[in-house]
TrEMBL record, chains A, B:
It comes from Lysobacter arenosi. Its EC number is 3.4.14.-. This is Dipeptidyl-peptidase. Keywords: Aminopeptidase, Hydrolase, Protease, Serine protease, Signal. PANTHER family: PERIPLASMIC PEPTIDASE SUBFAMILY S1B. It is an enzyme of class 3 (hydrolase).
C-alpha cells in the first residue's frame, strides 16, 4: 500500500518532471479540462471531462465563492456547505451574551430559525468566464511601464463597470499567465446568507492553532449556510420575506465508502501561487528573500520581547504584533525548509534551461528571448534594491505611530482629489478602515519599543550601500548610527500623535494645517511622503513592464510544454479552478507513514479537556457508545473524521468540495499539511497534501451527535 | 501489513489478557525457557529452547554484563559489542587535548592500538545461577519485620563471601518473585577491557537528547571493546602482557536481511520492573504517586527558576539540579500518561480480582489470603504516610547545605563502628564519594534558593495532618508557616557549612566536636538524625515484612497463571533475562504508522549541521554516494540504520544483543520509545517497543565509512 520513493528515485523523478505538471499537479481552469481529458480519465474520473468545462452545468454551477473562500450548494433549496472557519464570522455575528454559538454551535430547527449573516457576507456563483484579452490590451499595445499598467487598469475598470451595470452581479478581470490572457469573470452576488447548522467550535476547530497545518487531524471544520433571494428570484439584501435561492444545480453528498488511492477531484478558488515564476525569482526567494525575512523577523521579535521583558504593559500592547511576526517567521521558515527539501531552485533552473534549449531552435526565438531578457532586467532591478525595500516595508508596516503619521499625510494629500483618481486604499470607502486603524494604535503602542524597533531597522538601513539609500529617509533619520538616538528621541518627544483625539482630529486636516501643527512626526512624514510615493510609482512602472514582458516567457513555457505533450495551468489568482488526484497517504519523513483517514479514536487520544483539545461531552459519549450506523468505515470498524488527498490547493481553497469519480461529494477541504507550505512555489508530489473533512463525519454528527434529521432529509441522506 | 486494533478490540484484548503475559511480554530467566518452549517455537524460534536454558552453552555464554548494562562477545578473541553510550566513559577516559575520541571516534588499527578502559570498567560473564532459597531463608523462618530482613541480609552476605573466595569471580544474591526464591549468581569478572572501535559521537549519539526515547531513530549507538586476561587465562588488572580473553562462545553477526514481522530474541540484564505489584500499588502509583510527583517537581522547578530569574549566578548554580528535576518530571508524566492510556489500574485490578476468585476455591486459600492481607496492611501503612515520606525525601535530596549537614552528622555517628556494621553508604569505601559530594556543594548552592525550596517543601509539610508529622522536624522548623522565615534565616545565618574547608574539615570530627561547633545547621542535623534513622529502621522493617509476606501473593499468581496454562517471569532485577517477539511496526496514535526500519535518508533529513544533528562529512558523503554493497536492504534500495521490535526491555537492557530465529546477531538494543516509559509497570502490546541498531548499519560503517576491514574479518563478515 505504501508508495515509498528512495532518495535516488525522487531525484530522478524531480529531474524528469522538472518543474512541470506532475500527474497530480495542477489548478486547472475548467475550460482546460477537455484538453487534459485523457489524463483525467486515466486517473479514474468517470464523468465527461467536457461537462466540467461548462460553468453553467453541473457540477461547476454548484461550486460557489463564499466569505472570500470556497463552498458548494448541497440541496435544491440553496443550502451551502463551507468550512466552519470560513463561516466563523457569521457564527460570531450571531452570538451574544447568553447565546454563545461559537461554543455551543447552532442548529436551526426550521427555516424561520435560520439566522441572517453579517450584511457584508456574500455567496458568489460564477456564471461567466469570457476571454477578453484583446479588448483589455487594445489601448496598452505600444506602451511601456507605468503607461502600460495604467492602460490595462483603465480597460479592466471599464469592462467591470459595464458588466456590473446588470444588477445582482459582481464582475472582475482575471489576469491569466501573468498578462498573457485576461478573462471577464461574472458572478451572481447573493447578499442574504443565513446560518443553518454549525458544530461547536470545539468540533469545528478541534486542535486549534496547535493542529493548524498538522496531519493527522480531527476537526469537523464545516458549517451549513443557506442563500436567500427576493421573491422575484433576484439577489436581494436580507428581508424576512426572502425565499431560498434555487441553484441551477447542487452536489449530492456521497453515501459510499472511500479508501486510500480512490480518485478525488476538487473545485474552488485558490488565491495565489508562484509556480511559473522565472528561475531567478525562485533562486532569489530561496537564497535571499526567505532567509532574510526569517532573520529580520527574528531580530524584530527579539527587540520587542527584550523591551517587553522590562515593561509588562508594553509586553501586553505588543502581544498581538509579536504573534503576527512569529506567524510570518514560521511561515517563511516552513516555506524555506520545503523549497530546500525539494531542491526547488535547481529543479526550476534545470527546467528553464531545457526550455531555453528548446526555444532557441524555434523560429521566433530571438524576439521572445529579447522580451524575456528585458523582463529579467526588470526583475534584476528589483533585486538590486531588495534589502532597502524589505527594510522600508518593515519600517512602515511594523511601527504604529510613524505609520499613523504617514497615513495621515497621505490621506491629506489624496483627499482633495476626485474619489476615482485617489490611490487605492485612500478612497472614501477606506475612511472607516483608516479611522479604525488609528484608534487601534492606542492598544498596540509603547514609545520605547517603537524607538527600539526603528533603531534596529534604521541601523540596518544605514549600513546599506549608498545606491540603495533614499534621500528623504536619510534626511529624517540621519546617515550614521550615532545620530539615531538623538533623532528618534526628538521625533517621539515632539509628537502628540500618541493621543487618540489628536490622531483622529488630524484625519480632518489638510496638508497645510498638518504642516502648521509643528508635530515632529507629522513633519517627518511630510518629508518621507514624496519618497514613498516615488517608490510606489517605480513599483507600478515595474509591474507594468512585467505585465508587458512576462507573456513572452509564459508563451514559451506553454509551447515548450505542448512540445512535451503537456498542458500548463495558470498560476492561481482567486478564480475557479479544478484539481484532481486521489486519496493519499504520505511519508513525511524516514520511518513515518501517515494514513489518509483519521478516526474518532484520535479525538479521544488528543482530548485533554482544555482548549484546543476539549471535545464536547456529547461527542465523547457518542464515540464511547460506538453507534456509528451507516457512516462507519467498514475496514476500520469505526467512524472516520478527516481524510487526506494529494489534491493541488492553496489558500482560498478552504471550503472547496471534494468529489469522487462519479461527482459525488466525499469531503470538504479545509487545510494543508505543514510540509506543503512551500507548494505556493513548487508542487512536490512527496509532500503536497490537502486535508479535508470526511463527509461521513458530517453525516454522523448530524445523525447521532447534534442531530438535524431535517437537514439530512433535505440533502437526501439516510437518517443514520 | 499493518496490525491495527480498534478501541474496542484493544479493550477486549486487555480484558482477556488482563495483566498476564501477552504473546510478546516477558523477561524470562533462561532456566524458564524450556517451560515456554511451545510458545517460543510458535513465535518462530528455530533453535532448541533447552539450549537457551544453559548458561554454559551458546548463545547464553556469549552474553555479558558490561559497564552496568549489557553486551555480547562477537569474536573468538574476546571482542565485545555494546552501546556507544554504555562505553562512553571508556571513550571519554581515553580522550585528552589533541585526541578527542568522543568527537572523532576511534579505530584501533591493531591489538597494540587498543586503549585500556578506566580501571573500574568491567565485563562480567554469568557462569552460575543456582537456586539457594532454602539456605537464604533458613535463619529467617519464624522471624518477622526487621529481624526477617536482617536474617536474609546476613545469609546473603555469607553466601556471597563464600562464592567470592574463588579469585576472579563476583557473586550476588538475586531475589526472584519478591522474596519467593533466591539465586546465587556467579560472574567471571574481566578487569582488563580495551577500546577497539567507536564511531564519532555524532553517529553513536546522533539525535542526542532531542531524539532520546524517539522513534524513528538514526543513531549508530555501538562500540567494540575487547576483554583481556592474564597469560594464565585468568582475570587480571590491565597489563601490557595480557592476552585477549577467549570466550567459551561468541555470537555471529548476521549477513541476512530482516523485515517487519521477523522473529527476534534478546538477552540482557534488565534493571527493575513492577509488573507483579499488587493492584493497590498500581492504583497508588497512578492516582497519587506519579501525579503528586509531577506537581511537587513542577513547584520545585518554579521556585528555583523564580529565584534564578533574579540572580544569574544562582541560575547557573542550579542549572544541573533543574535539569535533573525536569527529567524526573518528564519521566513521571510519561509514565503517568502511559499507564492512563493503558487503563493500567483497572486492568491490574480486574486481573487480581480474577486471581482471588480462583484462589478462594483452592485448598490453602485461607492461609494465603491471611498473608496477602497482612502484606496489604504493610502497604497501606506506607500509603498512610506517603505525603510525609515524599516531602522529607525531597528535603534531603534536593537541598545542598542541609543535606551536607545531615550527611556529616551521620558520618560522625557511623564512623566509630566497625566497618561491616556501618549503614550502607557510610562505610570506608564511601568516604571518597561523600567527600566529592561535599566539594560539589560549592558549585550548586545559593542560600536564597535553598531557603525558598525549603519554604515550599516545609509549608506543605506543615499542612499535613499531625499523624504524619515528625517531632524532630517540627522542633527544628516549627509547626506554623509564620515561623518558617525566622527559623530558616537563623539556620542559614548561623552556619559556616557554605565554606568548603569547613565542610571537609567536619568529615574528620566526631559527634561531640560537631556539637561544640555551635553551627546552626549541624545542630539542626543532630536533632533530625534520630528521626531520619528511626524512619529508616521503620522502612527496613516494612521491607522485611513484605519480603516475608509477598511470596504468598506471588505463589498465588503463579498458580493462577498455571491454571491458565501460562508461566510467570519474575520482575526484572538486573539478572540475565531473555525476551522474544518480532520486528514490529507501531501505530503510536490515530493516523500515524511507524515503520520498523529506518534508513540513511533520515540522517540526511535530520541533519542541521548543529548538535545533536551534525552528521559527519564522511557519513554524508558515503550516503550521497549510495555505495551500500551487501549491507543494503533490497526492498528499500538503501541502507538501513535502526530497527524496532516489540521485545520486552527496560533500563539495563542497553547493549543487549538481538538475535534472529537461528541465533545470529541482527541488532543491538539501545533505547525504548517514549510511549513505553510506563512499561516498567505494564506491558501494553500496542505501545511497547524497543529500539536497536541494525547490524547492517554497523557493517556498512566498518566497510565503507570509517573502515576497519581487520575487524570485519575477525567477526567473519564480508569486507563490503
Amino acid at each position: 500500500m505504501r508508495h515509498r520513493l528512495s532518495a535516488l528515485s525522487v531525484s530522478l523523478l524531480l529531474a524528469l518532471g522538472a518543474g512541470a505538471a506532475h500527474a497530480d499537479e495542477g489548478m486547472w481552469m475548467p475550460s482546460q479540462l477537455p484538453d487534459i481529458a485523457r489524463q483525467l480519465k486515466a486517473a479514474g474520473f468517470k464523468g465527461k471531462p467536457g461537462d466540467l468545462a461548462e460553468l453553467a452545468r453541473p457540477p461547476m454551477n454548484a461550486v460557489v465563492k463564499v466569505g472570500g473562500a470556497s463552498g458548494a450548494f448541497v440541496s435544491k433549496d440553496g443550502l451551502v456547505l463551507t468550512n466552519h472557519h470560513v463561516a466563523f464570522g457569521v457564527v460570531q455575528y450571531n452570538s451574544k451574551p447568553g447565546r454563545d454559538l461559537i461554543k455551543d454551535g447552532y442548529i436551526a430547527s426550521d427555516r424561520a430559525g435560520e439566522l441572517p449573516a453579517n450584511p457584508d457576507y456574500r455567496v458568489l456563483v460564477t456564471t461567466g468566464f469570457d476571454r477578453v484579452t484583446d479588448s483589455i490590451l487594445a489601448a496598452a499595445r505600444g506602451k511601456q511601464g507605468r503607461a502600460y499598467y495604467d492602460a490595462v487598469d483603465s480597460a479592466s475598470k471599464a469592462a467591470v463597470a459595464k458588466c456590473e451595470s446588470e444588477p445582482g452581479y459582481r464582475c472582475s478581470i482575471a489576469n491569466m499567465y501573468y498578462g498573457t490572457d485576461f478573462y471577464l469573470v461574472r458572478q451572481l452576488e447573493l447578499r442574504d446568507v443565513r446560518l443553518v447548522y454549525a458544530p461547536p467550535n470545539d468540533i469545528g476547530n478541534y486542535g486549534g492553532e496547535v493542529d493548524n497545518f498538522v496531519w493527522p487531524r480531527h476537526a469537523g471544520d464545516f458549517t451549513l449556510l443557506r442563500a436567500y433571494v427576493g421573491k422575484d428570484g433576484k439577489p436581494a439584501d436580507y428581508s424576512a420575506d426572502n425565499v431560498p435561492y434555487v441553484p441551477p444545480a447542487h452536489l449530492q453528498v456521497s453515501t459510499r465508502n472511500v479508501k486510500d488511492g480512490d480518485f478525488a477531484m476538487l473545485a474552488g478558488y485558490p488565491g495565489v501561487t508562484f509556480r511559473h515564476r522565472m528561475a531567478s525569482e525562485f533562486a532569489n526567494q530561496i537564497q535571499w528573500q526567505l532567509p532574510s525575512r526569517v532573520a529580520l523577523y527574528q531580530r524584530m521579535i527579539d527587540v520587542v520581547e527584550a523591551g517587553g521583558s522590562k515593561d509588562e504593559a508594553a509586553r501586553v500592547s505588543y502581544a498581538s504584533q509579536v504573534r503576527g511576526m512569529k506567524n510570518t517567521l514560521k511561515r517563511a521558515q516552513g516555506e524555506l525548509d520545503g523549497l530546500r527539501r525539494s531542491d526547488a531552485a535547481k529543479v526550476r533552473r534545470d527546467d528553464e534551461s531545457a526550455m531555453y534549449t528548446w526555444l532557441d531552435k524555434q523560429a521566433d526565438a530571438a524576439a521572445t528571448r529579447a522580451d524575456i531578457d528585458a523582463a529579467q532586467a526588470v526583475i534584476d532591478q528589483g533585486v538590486a534594491t531588495r534589502e532597502r525595500d524589505q527594510l522600508l516595508g518593515a519600517i512602515q508596516s511594523q511601527t504604529q505611530l510613524l505609520r499613523a503619521a504617514i497615513t495621515l499625510q497621505r490621506w491629506a494629500a489624496e483627499r482633495p482629489k476626485p474619489d476615482a483618481q485617489r490611490e487605492t486604499g485612500y478612497q472614501q470607502r477606506d475612511e472607516v478602515l483608516i479611522t479604525g486603524q488609528l484608534k487601534q494604535v492606542q492598544r498596540r503602542y509603547a514609545p520605547a519599543i517603537e524607538k527600539a524597533l526603528l533603531t534596529e531597522l534604521l541601523t540596518q538601513y544605514q549600513a546599506l550601500p549608498v545606491t540603495q539609500r533614499v534621500a528623504e529617509f536619510d534626511a529624517v533619520f540621519g546617515t550614521r548610527p550615532a545620530q539615531l538616538k538623538t533623532r528618534l528621541d526628538a521625533l517621539y518627544a515632539g509628537t502628540k500623535l500618541g493621543d487618540e483625539a489628536t490622531r483622529l482630529g488630524a484625519m480632518e486636516s489638510d496638508s497645510a494645517t498638518l504642516a502648521e501643527s509643528g508635530d515632529t512626526l507629522l513633519k517627518a512624514a511630510a518629508t518621507l511622503l514624496p519618497a514613498i510615493q516615488r517608490l510606489d510609482d517605480e513599483s507600478k512602472a515595474s509591474a507594468g513592464e512585467l505585465l508587458r514582458l512576462r507573456p513572452a516567457y509564459m508563451r514559451a513555457l506553454i509551447a515548450f510544454r505542448k512540445s512535451q505533450g503537456r498542458a500548463v495551468y495558470p498560476d492561481a489568482n482567486s478564480t475557479l479552478r479544478v484539481s484532481y488526484g486521489r486519496i493519499s497517504a504520505m511519508d513525511p519523513r524516514d520511518g513515518v507513514h501517515y494514513l489518509p483517514l483519521t478516526t474518532v479514536q484520535g479525538i479521544v487520544e488528543k482530548h485533554t479537556g482544555e482548549e484546543p483539545f476539549n471535545a464536547p461531552q456529547p461527542l465523547r459519549d457518542a464515540i464511547a457508545k460506538g453507534d456509528f450506523g451507516s457512516t462507519a468505515e467498514p475496514s476500520l470498524g469505526t467512524q472516520t473524521v478527516d481524510l487526506m488527498t494529494n489534491l493541488d490547493t492553496t489558500g482560498g481553497n478552504s471550503g472547496s468540495p471534494v468529489l469522487d469519480a462519479k461527482g459525488d461529494l466525499i469531503a470538504l477541504n479545509f487545510d494543508s499539511n505543514w510540509e506543503a507550505v512551500s507548494a505556493s512555489w513548487m508542487f512536490d508530489p512527496r509532500y503536497k497534501r490537502a486535508i479535508h473533512v470526511d463527509m461521513r463525519y458530517l453525516r454522523w454528527l448530524l445523525a447521532k451527535v447534534y442531530p438535524a434529521p431535517h437537514l439530512l432529509k433535505e440533502m437526501n441522506l439516510p437518517a443514520e
